[in-house]
Amino acid sequence: MSGGRRRTGVEPVLGDASALETATHDGAAELVTRLMDEAGIEANRDLIANILATGIRLGGGAADRLDLKITETAIGELADAFEVFAPYRDVPKVTIFGSARTRPDAPVYAQARDAARALADAGWMVVTGAGPGIMAAGQEGAGPGRSFGVNIRLPFESGANAFIASDPKLVEMKYFFTRKLMLMKESDGFLILPGGFGTLDEGFELLTLLQTGKAQPAPIVLLDVPEDSYWGAWTRFIQDEVTSRGLISPEDSALWRVTDNAQEAADEILGFYRNYHSSRWVGDLLVLRLQSAPTKAEVSGLSKRFGYLSANQRIQVSGPLPVEVRSRDHAELPRLLLRFNHSSYAGLRQLIDAVNALDSAPRQATPPGP
After folding, report:
1. Rounded to whole angstroms, how far apart are CA atoms 365 and 368?
2. What residues contact residue 117 under an 8 Å CB cut-off, 6+ apart?
3. CATH 3.40.50.450 occupies which residues in the chain?
4. What is the b/e burial string over 152-162, where b = at least 16 CB atoms within 10 angstroms of the residue's CB?
5. Neighbouring residues of 164: CB distance < 8 A, sequence distance ≥ 6
6. Which residues contact 349 (CB under 8 A, 6 or more apart)?
7. pLDDT at position 13 over 60
8. Which of 115, 162, 286, 335 has the fewest CB atoms in 10 Å of its CB?
9. C-alpha angle 238/353/185, rounded to 5°?
């Protein structure tokens, strides 16, 4: 999920400068540096150097030709996708998952289309896997100006749907893992409709990323149609066979919402950013940026309710920290600080929900800014 916009996420661990020397033979480090100079690379030189050094390491190591082909293709696909998404990194996005087999006349198709249209009308862009079915519904609802497609090349499918096929915001990929990364990395919210193995895989991976803190907090909405049993049966399975065995925590159900109403689905995603804006780590402090500063009484109430999430049992209001001021990282916004103990990311989601429900929060959600 995106790092160049409001949800900056866990700060990346920069490559160790010694990794270049470790991965390359004598003289190669100097050649890598010279290559970057000649290419005019000025930003993130440590990371670029380590990428180049890793390529040299692969060439001199135990990787066979198939290993190298996988690496080359994956890096190329990611580079293509980064270029397509880069101009739109400041625009909030929702990824829609669902079955490619859903027919255009199915009620659930209309649900996906209507939810996508509501989000597009609110200033969001829609990302799908670019195939038929629910993916086409998402693109139809959003319209071509607000759609992205990340298509997978499969021998038994004809390619991208007609709503995105000729759009420059379409990326085609060979590997599911690179495709899945882009479908999740770039978005600020997720809408999942009934689907098969692929849809369930994507949904469970999203939940795993959120549950383990490998992704920034984000809304996940499971949408079907009235009187449909799909998500109801899924929820019962999670409760009766997964939660009851202690395989997940009861509070993990806070990570998703189920609805059979397209507008409610859109409102849930929009409402997640009613007051919550973004988060980042500064040392061992988790910084939650807000649209509106809470009152002292509200902060005290949050500390009492959610102090268990903090190593010192406290949540405090703050202005921007020095590192945020230096990097011009949303210094205009108020903050909440806590020494998050990683005990429950579902609890963190509940804290964000509580922040959005404060009396001091804005009355209406607005599209989160860059």
Report:
1. 8
2. 141, 142, 143
3. 91-271
4. beeeeeeebbe
5. 128, 130, 139, 144, 147, 148, 149, 151, 170
6. 210, 217, 254, 255
7. no
8. 162
9. 70
Selected residue with higher pLDDT from 225 and 29:
225
Tell me what the mean pLDDT of segment 199-222 comes to. Answer: 96
Q: Average the pLDDT over 245-266 and give the result.
A: 97
Which amino acid is residue 30, in one-letter code?
E
- 299-319 residue pLDDT tens: 999 999 999 999 999 999 999
What is the token pair recorded at 22?
């470790």
Which residue's entry shows tokens 């998703």? 256
> How do strand 335-338 and strand 316-318 relate by DSSP bridges?
antiparallel
- Which comes out higher in pLDDT, residue 129 or 50? 129
Q: What are the phi and psi torsion angles at 280 (to 5°)?
A: -160, 165
Distance from C-alpha of 219 to C-alpha of 248, rounded to nearest angstrom: 19
Helix (H, G, I), strand (E, B) or coil at 247: coil
- Taking the whole predicted model, whether its pTM rises above 0.85 is answered as yes
Q: What percent of the chain is predicted at pLDDT more than 90? A: 79
d(CA 134, CA 111): 9
Q: How far is it, in rounded angstroms, from Cα 85 to Cα 169?
A: 8
Name the one residue in this structure whose structure tokens are 């409001």: 6
Q: Which two tokens stand for residue 357?
A: 């429900």
Which class does domain 91-271 fall in? alpha beta
- Distance, in Å, from the CA atom of 92 to the CA atom of 235, rounded to the nearest integer, reads 28
Instruction: Answer whether 189's CB lies under 8 Å from 324's CB.
Output: no
Distances (CA, A) of 327 to 11, 17, 323, 324: 13, 22, 6, 5
Helices (runs of H) and strands (runs of E) counted in the chain: 13, 11
CB-CB contact of 230 with 194 (8 Å): yes
CB 2 within 8 A of CB 185: yes
Nearest to 7 by CA among 305, 333, 341: 333
- Please give the Cα distance from 210 to 350 (Å, whole number): 13
pLDDT of residue 52: 87
Residues ≥6 apart with Cβ < 8 Å to 63 = 71
Tokens of 87: 């101009």
Cα Rg for the chain, rounded, in angstroms? Answer: 22
pLDDT, position 368: 60
